[in-house]
Design a protein that fits this description.
Layout lengths: L11 H7 L1 E3 L5 E3 L7 H43 L4 H20 L3 H20 L7 H6 L8 H28 L2 H22 L1 H15 L1
Antiparallel strand pairs: 1-2
Helix pairs in contact: 2-3, 2-7, 3-4, 4-6, 6-7
Length: 217
């Protein structure tokens, strides 16, 4: 999903979007550069959680997911010298709610964790406007640097509504479903819904990118 180039001279806007900017240390980096490994940090603990749950229940699965999170974050940091902020937030909350689950021997806390994470992401999507920051642009903007900020704000609104809907769904799931059903919902339902939602935003972003390229010609 990288921008499609044109033959001949590159447009000024495209050149500006790709122009390196200095980081805090004075070195040049790309504006769209961001830490790699987000997918690994998100997916590996989830896979470990599901596998261990099938073998030995939710308490052992929680401990295993926490250990996997620490291990994968350490690996990503060692390899890239950075960890995606969203992954750090999600992993940090897993440590908190997973720790409470094990300490108090109460699975309610690990079941509440997705609700809290999703609600925080919804708040970030809405609140970012106040500080001129975009959640959706942070997640997807590296692939489409020419898309206008007004479009990213529109996508942020969609992200906020989607995360709030998922948070509400998780609350209903853990309160009214069995633990087996909730684990299935968490691992497959939330993950599948997130993938479908993100991909559903690309047509809007693609049209915006093509419009920006046309104006710059």
């Amino acid at each position: 999903m990288y921008p499609i180039g044109h033959k001949g001279a590159m447009s000024k806007n495209s050149q500006d979007a790709k122009k390196p900017v200095p980081d805090a240390s004075g070195d040049s980096i790309s504006e769209s550069k961001k830490p790699e490994g987000s997918g690994l940090v998100d997916l590996l603990p989830l896979i470990v959680f599901f596998g261990v749950y099938a073998l030995d229940g939710i308490m052992t699965a929680t401990a295993a997911a926490m250990a996997a999170t620490v291990g994968v974050v350490a690996y990503v940091y060692a390899k890239h010298r950075a960890v995606p902020q969203m992954a750090l937030i999600s992993g940090g909350l897993l440590m908190v709610f997973g720790g409470l689950t094990l300490w108090l021997d109460d699975e309610m806390f690990i079941k509440m964790k997705p609700t809290i994470v999703l609600a925080l992401f919804a708040l970030a999507a809405l609140g970012g406007r106040a500080v001129h920051w975009s959640l959706s642009k942070t997640l997807l903007g590296g692939q489409m640097p020419t898309v206008a900020d007004t479009v990213w704000r529109k996508i942020d609104g969609r992200f906020a509504l989607f995360y709030l809907a998922l948070a509400a769904s998780n609350e209903l799931a853990w309160r009214f479903l069995s633990t087996d059903a909730w684990v299935t919902f968490k691992v497959f339902g939330i993950t599948a819904a997130s993938v479908v939602f993100v991909f559903s935003q690309f047509p809007t972003l693609k049209r915006a990118e093509e419009a920006a390229d046309t104006l710059s010609e």
